[in-house]
Amino acid sequence: MDRLDKIIVSQTEYSRKDVKKLIIQKRILVNNEIASKPEFKVDILKDTIKINDREINFQKFVYLILNKPKGFISATEDKKQKTVLDLVPDKYKNRGLFPAGRLDKDTTGLMLITDDGEFAHNILSPKKHVSKEYEVTLDIPVTEDMRDGFKNGVKLNDGECKLAELIITGKYTCNVILTEGRYHQIKRMFGCFGAKVIELNRVAIGNLRLPIDLKVGDCREVSIEEKNRITERKG
Ligand code: URA
Predict the structure, then answer these.
(1) What pTM, to 2 d.p., does this model score?
(2) Which residues are catalytic?
(3) What distance in Å separates the CA atoms of residue 173 and residue 109, rounded to the nearest whole number?
(4) Which CATH number fits domain 2-55: 3.30.110.40, 3.40.50.11060, 2.40.420.20, 3.10.290.10?
(5) Whose CA is nearest to atom 7 of ligand 1?
(6) 234 pLDDT exceeds 80?
(7) Residues 172-225 pLDDT 10s
(8) pLDDT for the residue numbered 162
(9) How far is it, in rounded angstroms, from Cα 166 to Cα 190?
(10) Which of 94, 141, 195, 201 has the fewest CB atoms below 10 angstroms from its CB?
(11) Ligand 1, from 187, 189, 201, 210: best to mutate by most atoms within 8 Å of Cβ?
């Protein structure tokens, strides 16, 4: 059971102030009865709430997929810089969404945004082995030394990386698959080979690939089937 105003704020674009006004105007119904106070207790599993005669569809959690552009930081708010939350439609703005994992400001590609902490933990914890795949462009040619080094474990100043797969796709390009996400990990791993990462684009989390029709900067809800694909094992 939760307060009526709290539930409406989390599921809609209305603020607490709006809810107060709507109640005074008798425009909110709980189980078809006019709601009289914002603190009225509601059970989202049993009760129906209507605003202006339209029923609210409750969603416990939201899972968004974003094709992150350059220039946005992986945070929920910042005084100076644009954050990935600035790319989320307004209707989700009261839900307490956060990015499930970080991409650098200049990294692009697949990012998941949610309000489900357990789900985020499950895709981020190295113990859960959910892979992250990146397309990488370097300033120098990719070498077999790099590939073998990634396979055997690169040592960074904060410890040895878990084994990573490097697939050479061109003279300066490769795909890298990791199961952990340390600060600037790919850039630092290539730094050990004297290489600078010029472009970094995440193309997959688990078995969920960045949809080709999701334009850079666009964001939409993931389907149940897509969500399941994130944690399903390859087989
Ligand atoms: N590795 C990096 O160096 N940067 C990212 O944004 C992601 C992985």
Answers:
(1) 0.87
(2) 104
(3) 16
(4) 3.10.290.10
(5) 103
(6) no
(7) 999 999 998 899 999 999 999 999 999 999 999 999 999 999 999 999 999 989
(8) 84
(9) 11
(10) 141
(11) 187
